[in-house]
Amino acid sequence: MASAELITAVVVDDHPAIVAGVQAWCTLADPPIEVLATGPTPAAAWTDPGARADVVVLDLHLGQTAQPGYGDLTRLVDAGRQVIVYTMRDDAETALSCVDIGAFAYLTKAEGQTHLVAAIRAAANNLPYTPPALAGAIGADTRSSRPRLAPREEDVLIEWFTCESKEMVAQKLGLSARTVNTYIDRVRIKYANVGRAAPTKAALVARAIQDGLVALEDL
Amino acid sequence: MRRGDGAESARPDRAAARAGDAVAGPDGAAARPGRRRGTAAVYLRGLRLATVLITFAGLFGLALPVIVAHAEVYRSLTLELVAFGILLAVAVFCAVRADPGRWRWPLLVLVFGAALLALTGVPPELIVSRAEWSFMLLGWFGVLLLLDKGIGAVLAFLLVHAVINVGQLVLVGQADRAALVGLLIAGVTVFGYQLAVAFAAGMLHRIARVAAETARAEARRRTAAVITRELQRDHEERYAALSRTALPLLVDLATGRADPGEERVRRLAAVEAARMRRLFAEGDDVDDPLLHELAACIDSAQRGGVSVQLAVRGPRPPLDLAVRRALTEPALAALVAAASTARVTVVGSANAVTVSVVADAPEPVPVAQADGVVVTNLVNADRVWVEAKWRAQN
């Protein structure tokens, strides 16, 4: 997918203010991200020009439904699309379910301004991106199916969730900011490597191995 | 670490012991009516057994020999034997089943039926004589079947019985003065015993009922007393918690020692206000007390114009009040001191809970650590990060 070229995105959200906000962030980003299409239903991501977009920004609760749209997410992921779930819901269970299905990242709307543009850029390049809400869900994950994490990795995730500043995490744990990033990314790759198989997860793991972030035997 | 918090940290044990008291109180009281009711029940059972024995003794010791001795005299021996059989069957039933239940009325009909059969089988001139055995015996069946219905029921039974006998006398044309007097004498003699038993049973029933009511009232009174004592203690504890910090500040404000124009005093007042809110929240009965009390702290900060974001992750074990206070205290101070924004996070696991605040607040005053809660502060540029972490002590 695009790396040096212009990154493109499609925004699926039924709230016009959210769509307008995301569009504005993308336009103001440096380099800018082109929003090819927007729409209140996933149809925007399946039809031209949205179908050509590198990244899908998907609201998990479209229309008046109380249930999260896991079906829409699964179909997009299975079609090889890079999906960033962007939702009002800030609960660990939903975040972990989305990651398991193969969503590239899980962002709460409170985190959007700080993290959405960076997440779209990372998604277009198959690079892991773990915003604080998702880090908290992974760090406090107690499911039996969770991948094995080193205690230090858990600490870093929780501190990142708590303070939202990698600089402060590094300061508190006596690590370099770079090491903090590496810990967070490695955990994300471990999560991509377990559970349901999805092309997006495979791409994430492949890119991480290629970049030397993780070795094959670590997984 | 224990000093000053000893009273609070000892509280859970004490609370458990008090809860034990509260439960044991009514229970203990409940055991006593059981015993009293038991005593009355034992006497009632004894009375019933005695009645059963008397009935059997009457059937075999009085009625059967009379029937055998007068076998030749009866108009029909078969009728007498059938009547005897029916009464014997009813007596056996009553011996086996203490409470006749829904069989009570059919059995009463059977008993009177048997009496009529026995009467019919006796020649008219012998109705008031030893040959008529059923008259003496029948009352005991009334006592057996109506023992738990009170003396009135037994009296009614005996009355019906007497009416039937007098009626039969009239029917067969033997209602002369001698016969009626004979019947009356026999009646007074036998009915007296039977009524005495019924009267005793009625008394025992009443005693048991009164005892049970008294015990219930006593249990209610004890429970109410325990609840009042608990409420009083809670009030005192809350007042004590307030008087440690809030009252001195109020006194200083009142006497002019503290100046409300001073930033330091205003912050102290804000902290005390937040503590009071938390204190009130501690009394609420909620599923998640830690989050509820934290919400009270957050609410105080929001009233001060701070935008607060809260995120919660992971399961949490239940925590004692002292631990919850120690966890929320640093957060409370940071929230109240925040200039515009704060992020509150609660992260739990099976044996640890962390409450953390990141806010644009001045560097916090170090707080004393208590009850296994470790507080760490980190200052970075314009933000402070205050974290209180509790770990289960094994």
Write a structural description.
The complex is a heterodimer of chains A (219) and B (394). Chain A has 219 residues and is an alpha/beta fold. Chain A has two domains: 8-140, Response regulator (Rossmann fold, 3-Layer(aba) Sandwich); 151-211, no CATH class. Chain A is built from ten helices and five strands; from the N terminus they run βαβαβαβαβαααααα. Chain A has a five-stranded parallel β-sheet with strand order 2-1-3-4-5, sandwiched between helices. In chain A, helix 7 packs across helix 8 (166-173), helix 8 packs across helix 9 and helix 9 runs antiparallel to helix 10 (199-210). Chain A is globular. Chain B is of the alpha+beta class and 394 residues long. In chain B, strand 4 (373-380) and strand 5 form a beta hairpin. Chain B has a five-stranded mixed β-sheet, covered by helices on one side. In chain B, helix 2 runs antiparallel to helix 5. The two termini of chain B are 17 Å apart. Classes of the chains: A alpha/beta (219), B alpha+beta (394). The interface between A and B is medium-sized, with 20 and 20 residues.
- Any guess at the CATH architecture of the largest domain in chain A? 3-Layer(aba) Sandwich
- Write down the secondary-structure element order of chain B: HHHHHHHHHEHEEEE
Strand-residue proportion of chain B: 5-15%
Q: What is the gyration radius of chain A calculated from CA atoms?
A: 16 Å
Give the SSE order of chain A as H and E letters: EHEHEHEHEHHHHHH
Question: Given the helix and strand composition of chain A, which structural class is it?
Answer: alpha/beta
Largest sheet: spatial strand order of chain B: 1-2-3-5-4
Averaged pLDDT of chain B: 83
**Rg over CA atoms of chain B:** 42 Å
> What percentage of residues of chain B falls in helices of 4 or more residues?
55-70%
> In order across it, which strands form the biggest sheet of chain A?
2-1-3-4-5
Q: Low-confidence stretches of chain A at least 5 residues in length (pLDDT < 50)?
A: none
Name given to the CATH homologous superfamily of the largest domain in chain A: Response regulator
Low-confidence stretches of chain B: 1-37
Q: What is the beta-strand fraction of chain A?
A: 5-15%
Please tally the β strands of chain A and state the result. 5
Q: Average pLDDT of chain A, to the nearest integer?
A: 89
Instruction: Give the oligomer, counting copies of the same chain as homo and different chains as hetero.
Output: heterodimer
Count of beta strands of chain B: 5
